[in-house]
Every structure is written in structure tokens, then in C-alpha cells.
Fold:
Amino acid sequence: MAGNIDETLRERGLRVTPQRVRIWEVLAGSGGHLTAEEVWREVSGALPGLELSTVYRSLDALCDAGLVVESRPPEGPRLFEARGERHPHLVCRECGGVFHPEREAERRLVEVLGEVSGGFEVEEVHLVAVGVCSRCSGEEAG
Ligand SMILES: [Zn+2]
Ligand SMILES: [Zn+2]
Structure:
């Protein structure tokens, strides 16, 4: 997908604009969770004069197209990342780091929720677990 973002945008019915392409590249390149402002700072180097509101609109369009997913931590601004589906997050209250649980943990979460919810078919889980990451709790050296 990263190979030809233009084509992917068109396939999903989106007009290809330099902003959209550049924003997606920044998110995909970072591999992490960025706020709209962080994206804006990265992108405005290549596209001077770009408004933050345009970045928000482009991000929304990319989300609608299923190229980007947004998540809402309990505090702070929305976070965006180059991933197609919503998923759970672990947020560290010490350093503000945002992490993904292991795939296995995510799979079991979906399974357990379905099992104990009277046949409810869980399709996606976008909960946020707040705690302290292993680096901040000092359990991981270095
Ligand atoms: Zn931390
Ligand atoms: Zn994520």
C-alpha cells in the first residue's frame, strides 16, 4: 500500500491532493500516533502555507477512506495513525506514551468480550487502558 498511495486514494474514491499524499506519508513513515498538530508541523515544511484546518479535513477524509484511524485518549488531542482498523491502546500516564497491546492480547480481548456478553459479536475494540509503561515503572533497564 505504501508503494502507491495515489492509486489507493483513487481506489477509495478520494481525490488525490498533495496534502493528502504528504499527510499519509508522514503518518506511515512515523509508524506511530501523531496529533494533527504534529502532522501539520511535519507537512508544512514541504507545503508552506498549509492551514491546520486543512490538515484536520484531510485526516478526516483519510479516516473515512479507511487509510488512517483516529483514537481518542482520555486526555489530550485525538491521535492519528496509518492503520486501517480501530484497535485498543495502552496509554502511559507518566510519559504519555501510546502503545499497542500484543496481537494475542487483542485477540483474547475480543474473544472474552464476546463470550461474556451474551452472544454479542465483537467486531472491533477501541478501548484505552491507562497505566504506567514498563520503562516508567523501571521494570525494563535502559
Ligand atoms: Zn511511560
Ligand atoms: Zn494505535
User: Anything to note?
Assistant: The mean pLDDT is 90. The radius of gyration is 17 Å.
